[in-house]
Amino acid sequence: MTKVKNIYEFLDGWAPFSTAMSFDNAGLLAGNGEEEVQTVLLALDITPDVVREAASCGAQLIVSHHPVIFDPLKRLTPDSAPWLLARHAIAAICAHTNLDLAPGGVNTCLAAHLGLANVRPLSIDLPSGLPEALYGELPAAMEPREFALHVKNALGCERVEFTKGSAPVRTVGLCSGAGAFCMPDPQTSGVQAFVTGEAKHHELLAAVESGLTLVVAGHFHTEAVVLEPLRLQLSQQFSQVHFQLAEASQSPSCYV
Predict the structure, then answer these.
(1) What is the pTM of this model?
(2) How do the pLDDT tens digits run along the chain, 256 residues long?
(3) Same domain, yes or no: 124 and 82
(4) Quick one: 130 and 217 in the same domain?
């Protein structure tokens, strides 16, 4: 019988939890690892609705990207996700920045969705020695607006925000989620565009000044690309366990 700890050990072998960034809270955040598992729900975030869905489908474990406990808990309420996990005896494994950095992880999946070839490290996370950002080539050059539309369609976004760079886009850098801190200088990196999930106003201004096409596609959409590949890997490794994507795992943003 598969236990939670078996799934944790598999994830730890692929995306070691020891490589998570210092601010992170990745790992087994609910349960003790000894719970037997027949059904696992996968989600980007463990929200109350995701926990309720897990309970309704009889899941014993949720595997998520974002930690269900991140900031210190000062209060528990019956409608909060940690309370509901405990109430329904559902374990939680959260693979966050360790999965961003891992080969085949979030950034690798984002590069694949964008159709990039010859993907390689753009910048390195110094504590782990793993790539925190990647870059690769498009099959053909695109004008900045055309590339922004390509990102929008590839990721299924309702909209994207972008800066109009000074050159056609062929070489693309990326860092999923809140990754604008990895934004390169196009003059020294050879990158004409950078894709991420979030960018601050001053980062958008810096992109304009440097001539970089910066595409901001949303935190959810740049990271949700990992869920189906993760489900497939887990299904292949644990054939007796049913892994399914949470229907309640949706972007929290609405647009008018």
Answers:
(1) 0.96
(2) 999 999 999 999 999 999 999 999 999 999 999 999 999 999 999 999 999 999 999 999 999 999 999 998 999 999 999 999 999 999 999 999 999 999 999 999 999 999 999 999 999 999 999 999 999 999 999 999 999 999 999 999 999 999 999 999 999 999 999 999 999 999 999 999 999 999 999 999 999 999 999 999 999 999 999 999 999 999 999 999 999 999 999 999 999 8
(3) no
(4) yes
Whether residues 92 and 142 share a domain: the answer is no
From 223, 244, 230, 248, select the one nearest 81 (Cα to Cα).
248
> Which string of b and e fits 184-222 if b means at least 16 CB within 10 Å?
bebeebebbbbbbbbbeeebbebbeebebbbbbbbbbbb
